[in-house]
Amino acid sequence: xxxxxxxxxxxxxxxxxxxxxxxxxxxxxxxxxxxxxxxxxxxxxxxxxxxxxxxxxxxxxxxxxxxxxxxxxxxxxxxxxxxxxxxxxxxxxxxxxxxxxxxxxxxxxxxxxxxxxxxxxxxxxxxxxxxxxxxxxxxxxxxxxxxxxxxxxxxxxxxxxxxxxxxxxxxxxxxxxxxxxxxxxxxxxxxxxxxxxxxxxxxxxxx
Length: 207
Ligand SMILES: [Zn+2]
Description:
single chain; 5 strands; binds zinc ion
């Protein structure tokens, strides 16, 4: 299994191909790969991304069948089932990179900001459970200097939510914490731009 840093480089290279429309995944190759994968999988990266239809991880990183173990949920939040999925893949397949992939203009973030400004009783309990996971990391921004600048507020909220998910994954699971400390598991945040197609990985990456 490849190391976290190498996996990260593969995603960076893949996103570059996506942005310049130079995909390596023609239908014929995908077809051949399907048969090769029946015996098992060895995904080189785990991606926890948003369900937004405009941000499919395999496409934006130009990866094929069997390459990515993808968990998608509105707002790329971290609840127990997401933690469990990451634990499962990291332990079972030896995958050494986890990317929390948020994106610009995320609807779940917009809904949370709206709810904070104007709480409504009508929201379903289920939707509320998503908003409640996003709320703690963004509510402080409503007293920031830029709070009246709608675009800036959303930008900061998207990033704060990605960082909160990274933090939650790193510290909300003993299994993941152990893998980070002793087995070189990397957990990093990244933001996809709907406008440019570029994935920007956050600073503070090791190595
Ligand atoms: Zn989203």
